[in-house]
Design brief:
The protein is an all-alpha fold and about 40 residues long. It is about 20% helix and about 0% strand.
Length: about 40
Amino acid sequence: GITGEYEPPQGYLVSEEEAAEFDTAFPYKEKLKLPGQLFD
């Protein structure tokens, strides 16, 4: 059989706070629904 333990790599799990801080480096983008899009 297979033995051992799984350990996720560093950086695989990110906290919500870290993700929000990272997102502040990008300019704001408005989400738009344009004609011709497949999903409403």
